[in-house]
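Problem 12. The chain below contains 75 residues. Write out its predicted structure in token notation.
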Amino acid sequence: MADQRPDYIGYCDQHGKRLYPSRKQAKQQLRRHRRRQGMREYPCDLVAEHWHVGHLPKDVREGRVTAPEIYRGQR
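Solution.
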């Protein structure tokens, strides 16, 4: 079966997630995702200038803390 998300450029060796070359492309893929609620794009901490798409932490989804509070200083 053909890959449904052809915009990624490979996989991150440590995280095992798809790498997107820009935040814009990661957001585009997120919009196409069927179950995108509770997900966001975020920068890869190993490969500079590349992005992943993943789930928000449970505390953010449940409103106990905001995403900027968790991710502050990681960009």
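Discussion. The longest helix spans residues 23-32. Students who got a different answer should revisit the alignment rule from Section 12.3.
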